[in-house]
Specification:
It is a single chain. With 775 residues, the protein is α/β, with parallel strands linked by helices. Among the domains are: 158 residues, no CATH class; 207 residues, Rossmann fold, CATH 3.40.50; 116 residues, Immunoglobulins (Immunoglobulin-like, Sandwich). It is built from 25 helices and 26 strands. The strands form seven sheets. It has a six-stranded mixed sheet with strand order 11-16-15-14-12-13, sandwiched between helices. The longest helix is centred in the N-terminal third of the chain and has 22 residues. It starts with a helix and ends with a strand.
């Protein structure tokens, strides 16, 4: 039954449409915005002048999909809705009311629309509106369009970062855009360019790691892939860089908790990826759940307007995160009511509200009261409409359902999903156990909670058809030579629960095998929300293996049977006992729907592991924060009962072959502050197997007016070498690589000496050094 509120709204909108229709119909011959032969700016200008204030506010409004609403209407109470970041409905507005609002032209965007049928239906409703403005439909296509059943699910962002292969990430962006457009979506809420420095935070897997340069490069690659597409307009989508800002290092590890950091740290660590994204032309930016230095990010005018718009030149539009404009009032207690919260956010620079009612009518009130100008509203609407024009939605709002089926998970996309998994899996340890070869250890038992399920697909995915996903167990079986026996035992699949019967059964059964593969880690599967231990809103107070996972490894190890541990996780875990006692360890991260095949290929030597850690692995939660580019005083003193420094450092990763670095040289060891120079190093594959190496360049400013990190990644190159093959790798050292914010916050190069380092990881023992003097 419709509420009194919704009936009044709909009655008003119907009356308004009847009154205003004649204004549009009388000028049909002059309608430029429906004619694609006109310039973009002329089409936008023509459409804006025809819109009422209410319609403009509608374009700034986003709602969840109707099917999503219907499900949430059954499952959530009003109280649940306020505290829920995954499901949504509107207590005073039924899904049928929302459908009518679309027909009235009072909604500009939707999210959480997961079927081609629904996207077409919504666009049909929009075509019935007075101005026939198509809908911009967004989705969290974080690593492929994984919320859509049957889509290609690539490795998660943290996994992709381990590849250090930006070209590959750009190709993934292009393919993701194709699959999105095939399903009727045009806007993805990715990339997440948060610099992640807290493994307790559940969303580490959405990020590209702890280093500002790597995060920037990977973010730019994804943006260019998504927005530039291949050739056709309909191959492209708009990207959304998120979350502005610094929510990736929350005060207690929990999503949306406060952040207090200096402007220096903001500018040195957290803002560079946004500057890179803006320079790459990112079309939208999402603000963060958290507050920053006492100001809710959704009301931070200094950050949105002064820094990103005025200083960095951002010309796209800002979108709020889920319910966060409301939380300026309900959570942060900065605004006394919703209307004031909306005012603060729009005044700060916000352009679109995610998600729901109340916003539109409050915007209209604020303009009529003179608190917000209509020109300010026009500025937001122009950007949103420009996106719709540039995406071709006015000409092609609908999707061919049959053609869509041919595009999703096509062979080239699946092949890239496999390639990206192969390049991203990190081998942390190998005491001559891998690769497995025919011999006397050919009876293998596979167990562990992540051995035979879709945990490898990571967060932001729906359950995928079984035929589309190769689990770790399946990947081992399909790659094992004929004389191998591969068996499986369920040791308990719910991470965090201690299923003693399953544990005892697995330990006992393991005794009759030559090798045990234990697949442990975290569960990011959002369709198993109650069992989820990782991902959005799944922070942890510990970074150790949860439940009985470690106990499983210890008890099987006590039997004297060799063990291979495979870690499937979106966050870096503390695994000191595993590292000390297990002969071989693969950190697979979340390798996507082809991850099991890639893991099996590595185990049997068909693929040489080549991933490098995009984050440092701490030993325990007490070491948080642990990151490689720390300040000199971070480890001045030592812990009483714990080692200092990471268990495994940023940039580390082993191979089945070996690489030698030699002849490290600098072209000019003395330069002026505005000059560049070049360094070269010879890298040789000294092993017996073809392999990939990631050559890493680090720089340290030896003495400076403000403290500087002990080293910073300034370049990297991924190369492939045959046995015995050598390659000369060169890096240009540019003034920007040497620049920083000095003691007075001036960005410049200070004269003095710099240490230039090249090697296979950030570990000091893996680096060659040379000196550079800047005059």
């Amino acid at each position: 039954m419709k509420s009194k509120y919704s009936i009044l709204i709909l009655s008003f909108l119907t009356l308004f449409t009847i009154i205003s229709f004649n204004v549009f119909s009388d000028s049909d011959e002059d309608v430029k915005y429906l004619d694609p032969s006109h310039k973009l700016e002329d089409r936008v200008k023509d459409l804006i002048k025809r819109m009422t204030l209410e319609e403009k506010a509608g374009q700034m409004s986003q709602y969840v999909g109707l099917d999503h609403m219907r499900k949430a209407e059954k499952n959530l109470s009003k109280t649940d809705l306020i505290n829920n970041d995954a499901q949504g409905f509107y207590p005073n507005l039924h899904s049928t009311d929302v459908a009518n609002l679309v027909k009235e032209g009072m909604i500009g965007s939707f999210l959480h629309v997961l079927s081609v049928e629904e996207t077409n239906f919504l666009q049909e409703l929009a075509q019935k509106s007075r101005l026939k403005i198509p809908l911009l439909i967004g989705i969290d296509a974080i690593h492929g369009n994984g919320l859509y059943s049957g889509a290609t699910v690539y490795p998660s962002p943290i996994t992709l970062a381990a590849s250090f292969d930006t070209n590959m990430v750009r190709r993934i962006g292009q393919q993701t855009a194709i699959e999105m457009r095939a399903t009727g979506t045009h806007w993805t809420f990715t990339p997440n360019i948060d610099v992640s420095r807290d493994p307790r935070w559940g969303r580490v897997g959405e990020t590209f790691g702890e280093d500002p340069l790597l995060v920037s490069d990977m973010g730019v690659a994804m943006i260019k892939g998504l927005q530039n597409g291949y050739n056709d307009l309909e191959d492209k989508v708009i990207a959304c860089a998120k979350h502005l800002i610094a929510g990736s290092t929350p005060i207690n590890g929990l999503n949306a908790s406060p952040m207090d950091i200096s402007e220096r740290t903001l500018r040195e660590v957290y803002l560079p990826p946004y500057k890179s994204a803006i320079d790459a032309g990112v079309y939208s930016i999402m603000t963060a759940h958290n507050e920053l230095n006492g100001i809710p990010c959704h009301a931070d005018k200094w950050m949105m307007t002064d820094i990103l718009k005025k200083e960095m030149g951002f010309e796209g539009f800002f979108v709020s995160d889920w319910m966060d404009m409301e939380r300026i009032h309900t959570l942060h207690k900065v605004a006394e009511n919703l209307k004031e919260g909306f005012y603060l956010s729009i005044d700060a620079g916000m352009d679109m509200h995610m998600h729901g009612p109340d916003f539109q009518e409050k915007v209209v009130e604020l303009v009529k009261e003179g608190r917000i100008t209509e020109e300010r509203i026009d500025d937001s609407v122009k950007k949103i409409l420009s996106a719709k024009f540039q995406l071709g939605l006015f000409e092609h709002p609908f999707v061919d359902i049959e053609e869509s089926k041919k595009i999703i998970s096509q062979k080239s996309h699946v092949a890239l999903a496999l390639e990206s998994a192969q390049k991203s899996i990190v081998m942390l340890k190998n005491n001559d156990l891998l690769p497995l070869k025919p011999g006397n250890k050919n009876r293998i038992l596979v167990t562990g909670p992540n051995a035979n399920n879709q945990s490898i697909t990571g967060d932001w995915t729906s359950y995928q058809p079984d035929d589309n996903v190769i689990t770790v167990l399946e990947g081992i079986k399909m790659n094992a030579p004929a004389d191998f026996t591969i068996d499986y035992v369920n040791s308990g699949e719910v991470i965090g629960e201690k299923a003693e019967n399953n544990l005892n059964n697995a330990v006992e059964k393991a005794k009759s095998y030559d090798l045990v593969v234990i697949v442990v880690g975290e569960n990011s599967m959002r369709y198993k929300w109650k069992d989820k231990t990782n991902g959005e809103n799944k922070g942890r107070a510990s970074i150790q293996l949860a439940g009985n996972q470690l106990e499983l490894a210890k008890r099987i190890n006590n039997s004297g049977i060799p063990i291979l541990v495979i870690i499937v996780s979106g966050r870096p875990l503390g695994i000191p006992w595993i590292s000390d006692n297990i002969p071989a360890i693969l950190y697979a991260w979340e390798p996507g729907n082809m991850g099991g095949k890639a893991i099996g290929e590595i185990i049997f030597g068909k693929t040489n592991p080549s991933g490098k850690l995009p984050v440092s692995l701490a030993r325990s939660v007490g070491q948080v924060q642990t990151f490689y580019n720390h300040k000199p005083s971070q480890y001045f003193h030592k812990y009483v009962f714990e080692k200092t420094g990471p268990l495994y450092p940023f940039g580390f990763g082993m191979s089945f072959t070996t690489f030698k670095y030699q002849d490290f040289e600098i072209y000019n060891s003395k330069i002026n502050r505005d000059e560049s120079t070049q360094v070269t190093v010879k890298v040789t594959n000294t092993g017996k197997m073809k392999g990939d190496e990631v050559v890493q360049l680090y720089i340290r400013d030896d003495y400076s007016s403000a403290t500087r990190p002990v080293k910073e990644l300034k370049g990297y190159k991924r190369i492939t070498l045959d046995p015995g093959q050598s390659e000369i790798i060169s890096f240009e050292i540019k003034p920007k690589m040497l620049s920083f914010y000095d003691a007075h916050m001036n960005y410049r190069v200070e004269p003095g000496n710099f240490t230039i380092m090249v090697g296979s990881s950030s570990n000091k023992n893996d680096l060659e050094e040379i000196k550079l003097s800047v005059l």
